[in-house]
């Protein structure tokens, strides 16, 4: 299982690097990494993370399609460029993440074997929002990734998933790079 965890971590790291460069191949890497992690998380009873991997597979397929369609050259379409959310949108997405986390923690709390329902629910909801915002190329996704990655390091250390904890620590640093890169690209 450890070699699969390293493979999933490597694919995930490659995906993050490609997302920083707005390279469309980010999405197949995320799909592969998420599929492997789905099995790993089910094995350690991290239900929220497993559900998140299912959603990541679906949102990665959507993001792949969305980015691909925006890159087609036609009169009707324009390349999707990184932009900031409006303040009202930022509040609504944050409220959505909070409500989703509450619903998830209530669901996870009834599971006797769940190791940390509160942290798992918070990471799941914030990561879901981050992935959707990334598919829309909203620069704000990187703030959500910073939060989710920091909390993920704690959760995965608690579960002794060391390669995954290292991956999320690296991704935490890369999220700063992503924020800077996308914000700079938006200015042009």
User: How many E-type strands?
Assistant: 0
Mean of all residue-level pLDDT scores: 88
Q: Tell me the radius of gyration.
A: 16 Å
Compute the number of helices: 7
| Overall domain count | 1
Q: Would you identify the regions where 5 or more consecutive residues have pLDDT less than 50?
A: none
Please identify the structural class as seen in this structure. Answer: mainly alpha
- Into which percentage range does the β-strand content fall? under 5%
Order of helices and strands: HHHHHHH
Shape field? globular
Provide a descriptive summary of the structure in words.
The chain is an all-alpha fold and 188 residues long. The protein has one domain (2-72, 89-187). The chain has seven helices and no strands. It has helices at 2-20, 26-43, 47-71, 87-109, 117-135, 141-158, 162-187. The mean pLDDT is 88.
Task: Draw up the topology in text.
Blueprint: H1 2-20, H2 26-43, H3 47-71, H4 87-109, H5 117-135, H6 141-158, H7 162-187
Helix pairs in contact: 1-2, 1-7, 2-3, 3-5, 4-5, 5-6, 6-7
Question: In short, what is this structure?
Answer:
The protein is an all-alpha fold and 188 residues long. It is built from seven helices and no strands. It is globular and about 50 Å long.
Entry keywords:
mainly alpha, globular, 188 residues, 79% helix, 0% strand
